[in-house]
Amino acid sequence: MSICRLGILIVVGGLAAVPAWAAGALAPTESPWMDPSLSPDQRADRLNSALTTEERLTLVHGLMPLPAFHSVPIPADAQPSAGYVPGIPRLGIPAIRETDAGLGVAYVGGLRHDGATPMPSTLALASSWDPHLAYQDGTVIGQEAWRKGFNVLLAGGVNLARDPRNGRNFEYLGEDPLLAGTLDGEVIRGVQDQHVVSTIKHYAVNDQETGRTLLNAKIGEAALRESDLLAFELAIEDGHPGAVMCSYNRVNGPYACENKHLLQDILKTDWRYPGWVMSDWGAVHSVESALAGLDQESGEQLDGQIFFGSPLKTAVASNRDYANRLKDMTRRILRSLFAVGVFDHPPVESEPDFRADGDVAETVAEHGMVLLSNPRGLLPLSKSLKRIAVIGGHSDVGVLSGGGSSQVAPVGGPALSIPIGSEYLWDLDFVRAMYHPSSPFRAIKAMVPQAEVHYEGGSYPSAAAALARRSDVALVFVTKWMGESRDTPDLTLPDGQDALVEAVAAANPNTVVILETGGPTLMPWRNKVAAVLEAWYPGGRGGPAIAKVLFGDAEPSGRLPVSFPAQATDLARPVLPGSDGQSEHPFDVEYREGADVGYRWFAANGVKPLYPFGYGLSYTAFSLHDLRAEGGKTVTLTVSVTNTGKRIGSDVVEAYVTGGPMSSKRRLIGWQRVDGLNPGDTRTVSLTADPRLLADWDDTAHAWTVRAGTFQVSVGASSEDDALSQPVTMAAATLRP
Ligand code: BGC
Question: Does the annotation mark 344 as catalytic?
Answer without folding.
Answer: no
